[in-house]
Amino acid sequence: MRVCGLEGDVVIEMHGVWKVYPNGVEALRGIDVRVEPGEFVYVVGPSGAGKSSFIKLMYREEKPDHGVVLVNGVNVKRVRDWKIPHVRRKIGIVFQDYKLLPNMTAFENVKFAMEAVEAPKRKMKARVEEVLELVGLSDRIHAKPNQLSGGEQQRVSIARAIVNNPSLVIADEPTGNLDPENSWDIMYLLEEINNRGTTVVMATHNKEIVNTLRQRVIAIEQGLIVRDELGGEYGYED
């Protein structure tokens, strides 16, 4: 396996990728795609189109049945289970339901991500405080998830995703549980992270966001990429 580290390397490559589940459902069929460093990519499509499978392949939650998936130069299908955490060190993941540890404070949730990759302990406190300030939660670092609003919890999730300086942030419906005001706050935050050089791939059903903050759009239907365009529109009715 090769871990890329050279400027200009492709962040994500998929070649002839198929994903077929045990019940026979073909979630992805012959996918070919390439994502360059620094891109912001929306992944859109109807429910059941294959978006989640497409996203999960990138952080090795799922493996392709056929084809090749390269993330930061690593063929994820060949990664042994015990090495998956190593591959994910350069990937930040933001979920719709936050997935925060309920008994930990905001500070502890973000710090845990650094501990998981065995980051130097002497750097943890300053780095955690830095990213919590970036997401606007300097005054909430000691709050536990049940003391935070949905928008604040998602901000902690984003801080956790970026604390290890990933080359790629994968956001799976990050605004799905939020009201419009908080959704826009999260989007502006993701744009800021992208402007700092991090590649962002975001699956979403939010038509207004996609049509307002124009970026590259990859549309998936019935397991196929049917549209891939820069500055694209959402293209589906709510």
How would you describe the overall organization of this protein?
GO terms for molecular function: ATP binding; ATP hydrolysis activity; transmembrane transporter activity. InterPro entries: AAA+_ATPase, ABC_transporter-like_ATP-bd, ABC_transporter-like_CS, ABC_transpr_LolD-like, Cell_div_FtsE, P-loop_NTPase. It is a peripheral membrane protein. It is found in: Cell membrane. Homodimer. Forms a membrane-associated complex with FtsX. A six-stranded mixed sheet has the order 6-7-8-3-9-10, with helices on both faces. The longest helix has 16 residues, at 180-195. The protein has a domain at 39-49 and 80-229: P-loop containing nucleotide triphosphate hydrolases (Rossmann fold, 3-Layer(aba) Sandwich), CATH 3.40.50.300. It has 238 residues and is an alpha/beta fold. It has seven helices and ten strands. It has helices at 51-58, 84-87, 106-116, 121-134, 150-162, 180-195, 207-212; strands at 12-20, 26-35, 40-44, 66-71, 74-75, 91-95, 168-172, 199-203, 216-221, 224-229. α3 (106-116) crosses α4. The radius of gyration is 17 Å and the shape is globular.
